[in-house]
Design goal:
The chain is globular. A five-stranded antiparallel sheet has the order 2-1-3-4-5, covered by helices on one side. A hairpin with a 7-residue loop joins strand 4 (55-57) and strand 5 (65-66). By secondary structure, the chain is of the alpha+beta class. The protein has one helix at residues 27-38; strands at 6-12, 18-25, 45-50, 55-57, 65-66. The chain has one domain.
Length: 71
Amino acid sequence: MVEDQTYEVFKKSADNTTVSVETVKGLEEGKSVLAALRRDKTNDEYYLFDPLSGNVIDPEQPSISIDPLAS
């Protein structure tokens, strides 16, 4: 079931390092966690990693895969 899928939340810092933050269950929980982290207004960028597809996703635009290590 899709609600049971886990995602890894991680951040890309201003110095271009990527660090795992936590694992969440389901896309809705992932959206909630990302929203809370993004409200902090730091220079860090937060993403969800989908281990089943091997893609990093932004749940606000679920059809778009992004590469957090690019740029």
